[in-house]
Write a structure and sequence with these properties.
heterodimer; A: 241 residues; alpha/beta; six-stranded mixed β-sheet; four-stranded antiparallel β-sheet; B: 311 residues; mainly alpha; ABC transporter involved in vitamin B12 uptake, BtuC; 2 strands; 1% strand; disordered C terminus
């Protein structure tokens, strides 16, 4: 088997005395969807922030397509193909829908305006976003989430992290996003990391999961196995079982 | 208002602005000069605001440009037109250098440091008497174009047009996407590949250069520089009030604001010689409270009723 696209080794990130991520490993391969789960405060978002370059790690290394990216700034990682969405939706309110999507194509890929617009309109279609010249304030939550996925895809990532994309969606909407994520993963041969609290999403969507608790990796493997793991159950329910 | 009627209005207003000296007397022309110079400052201030950075340092770069222009004419015998360019270049280079430090700050911190910068420039120039003439400043032996009122008018119009062209360049290219995304959410912009430092530095240097050019033109038109006059807070306060009144984040708003407040300020100075600045302050307060997107915002809202104010 060829080298994985993303190799994250022994990442530690502290904030003052708090160890938010404590020695976590993660690999992602093309076409693979990996879940990142754990209770609140487990370090999931911090891990993604470190991988995407929002924070630099305290120690550990991140290698992407054979290149060491551990200390690159966020915009350089985005240009190399590490993409992400954010836990709380963060559209650019002063740009319309298609313009939001264009940003990734304009800066991460350095496309000229005209081709960026073309790419953006294709991506809006791919994620099923109708009438993309609308203002962001006119979109439903589901549409904003789709827009954010399209926005991340516009940078043409090889690795895409979705940070709680399903939060705030009902079951039908969640299923629609699941379908969208599957479709784009297949079509673009992405490596996808999914942070999620909704367990049926993890069950339906991922090939395998890693479980974090208190910043540490406590389990890894297919969902069906991990869900039986006693340590995982204890982490979620708290205390001794 | 569709695109075609907008273009027609633009052509009519443009023709009127260009031909004004052919039928108007010297007084309207002198008002025109002031309005165009302030318009250039208001538009350039708005250009940086589009990235979310509020500058209170307009007068600093304006004054640097003014001094550079006068000193290069007096000491280096540079032709006046070239000296205006020199004023812009110096202001731009200074902004580039201090930008590396200052642009680490955001919001109020950035605003206050730019205010302090303008004061630092003034103090340096005030005390570097061997070069700058100290508190008395310097006087040009002759005004640019031999003081031909029409040419002076067209020079200031040219400065305003230059700034407007740059503003539209900012508005219609990827710079617009960079600055708007930085204003809306810097972290997400960075994750989308936007090089925040590079774009903020470019915007700060370009807008400061435009303010330097404006100051240089002002010095050439009026023929003198002095620390208190050339770094006057008027050159910060009035453009800010103009842009806010007209409406921010575009070229049209600051232009409208400059026309209204520019003409009004002529009369205010006559009727309330020492208190006219109070009016600019009031305009700023009232507009921020009741008209956050200015006059242009009202027009836009009328055209698209759903737009409203969004978070």
């Amino acid at each position: 088997m060829s080298q994985p696209t993303l190799v994250v080794e022994n990442i530690v990130r502290t904030f003052g005395g708090l160890v938010a991520v404590d020695g976590v490993d993660l690999t992602l391969e093309q076409g693979e969807i990996v879940g990142v789960i754990g209770p609140n405060g487990a370090g999931k978002s911090t891990l993604i922030n470190v991988i995407s370059g929002v924070y630099l790690p305290t120690s550990g290394s991140i290698s992407f397509r054979g290149e060491d990216v551990t200390n690159l700034p966020a915009h350089e990682r985005s240009r190399r193909g590490i993409g992400r969405t954010y836990q709380l939706i963060h559209p650019f309110m002063d740009l319309n829908c298609i313009e939001n999507v264009m940003v990734g194509a304009l800066f991460a890929r350095k496309l000229p305006m005209r081709s960026a617009r073309l790419v953006a309109s294709e991506l809006c279609e791919l994620v099923g976003l109708a009438d993309p010249s609308r203002r962001v304030s006119e979109l439903t939550i589901l549409e904003v989430k789709k827009m954010e996925i399209a926005h991340a895809l516009a940078a043409d990532p090889r690795v895409l992290f979705l940070d709680e994309t399903m939060a705030g969606l009902n079951i039908d909407e969640t299923n629609e996003i699941i379908k969208t994520v599957r479709r784009v993963t297949e079509e673009k041969q992405l490596a996808v990391g999914v942070v999620e609290h909704v367990m049926h999403v993890i069950r339906d969507l991922t090939h395998r999961v890693i479980v974090l608790d208190g910043g540490r990796l406590i389990a890894a493997g297919p969902y069906s196995e991990v869900a039986q793991n006693e340590q995982v159950i204890r982490a979620y329910l708290g205390g001794d079982v | 208002m569709n695109q075609r009627s907008a273009i027609i209005i633009l052509i009519v207003v443009g023709l009127f602005a260009v031909t004004l000296p052919l039928y108007a007397g010297p007084y309207p022309q002198s008002i025109g000069q002031m309005v165009f110079l302030y318009m250039s400052l208001a538009v350039s201030w708005d250009m940086l605001l589009r990235s979310g950075q509020i500058s209170f340092g307009i007068a600093g770069f304006f004054g640097l440009g003014a001094y550079t222009s006068v000193l290069t004419v007096l000491d280096l015998k540079l032709p006046p037109l070239l000296s205006i360019l020199a004023g812009g270049i110096l202001a731009g280079v200074v902004a580039l250098v201090v930008g590396f430090v200052v642009l680490r700050l955001r919001g109020m911190y950035f605003a206050i440091v730019t205010l302090a910068l303008a004061e630092i420039f003034r103090v340096i120039i005030n005390n570097w008497a061997s070069l700058t003439g100290g508190p008395e400043g310097k006087v040009l032996s002759s005004v640019i174009f031999g003081g031909d009122a029409r040419l002076l008018y067209w020079l200031t119009l040219g400065v305003a047009v230059l700034t407007l062209l740059m503003s539209e360049l900012f508005r219609r290219t990827r710079i617009h996407f960079a600055l708007t995304s930085i204003r809306d959410n810097e972290v997400v912009a960075s994750s989308s590949g936007v090089n925040i430092t590079a774009y903020l530095t470019i915007a700060f240097a370009v807008t400061s250069a435009l303010q330097g050019i404006t100051g240089a033109a002002y010095a050439q038109v009026y023929g003198f520089v002095a620390p208190d006059g050339s770094f006057s807070t008027d050159f910060t306060l009035l453009p800010l009030a103009m842009a806010l009144l007209g409406g921010v984040y575009g070229s049209a708003g600051p232009v409208i604001g400059a026309l209204l407040l520019g003409v009004a300020s002529e009369f205010l100075k006559l009727y309330i010689p020492y208190g006219h600045r109070i009016v600019y302050g009031l305009v700023i307060v009232v507009v921020i409270l009741f008209l956050p997107r200015g006059i242009a915002g009202i027009v836009r809202r009328k055209r698209a009723p759903r737009e409203g104010g969004h978070a």
